Each structure stands twice: as structure tokens, then as C-alpha cells.
Amino acid sequence: QVQLVESGGGLVQAGGSLRLSCTISGRTFRTVSTFVMGWFRQSPGKEREFVAATRWSVDSTYFADSVAGRFTISRDLAKNTVYLFMNSLKPEDTAVYYCATGYRFGSTDVRDFESWGQGTQVTVSS
Fold this sequence. Notes:
By secondary structure, the chain is mostly beta strands. Helices cover 0% and strands 52% of the residues. It contains no helices and eleven strands. Strand 4 (36-42) and strand 5 (49-55) form a beta hairpin. The chain is globular.
């Protein structure tokens, strides 16, 4: 019964920045300490891969090695929104980006995330 809506994707040049947003609605377990919001991405011919995640109740985050130092994840509790700030974008960052909910902090496995948005396209040109 959870709905996730991503926005903010688009076309940018290499080295540029984008901010993705994911708004949550419906019934969730956000008061549970293990509730996690994550970002994943998928490009043609590849498996969906982990990008970043944040624990909802506490500002605690973790990232894939491929984006560490370039991407930042944050959440606005009042707006029921999680953000992915993407800086120094590279062509290999091109993918459909999805937000998702999970209950296992520290996991990078798609199988630990149960509710998914429809995705937003990010294209980085060289």
C-alpha cells in the first residue's frame, strides 16, 4: 500500500549535477528504527544495482563504491521525501533510477527492498 514517486531526472552533461526526489505516500513503518529508503539504478542489459540508502529515523547513510564521494542522500521527514544529490556525473551513471523502501539497514540487495517507484531517467552525455 506504499506509493513512491520519483522525479528530477533529465539530461545533463558529464560533470554536471542533478537532484532526484522520491515522495512517499501510504502506510509505512517509518517509525521503525530499521526502516530504510534506498536508491537503485538500472541500465540496459544490466541488473538493477544499489546506489545509496538512508535510515529514516536517524541520519545514517551508506553508498555504493561507484558513487561514494559524488552522491549524497538525505531525507525530509516533514515532506515525506528522500533526495539523491548527484554531483560530478559520469556517462556510466546513465540509468533509470528507482527509490525503494526496506527494513534492513546496511543491505545493498534488491531483495531486501519491497516497495518501488516507477523510476526516473538520468542520462549523462559525454
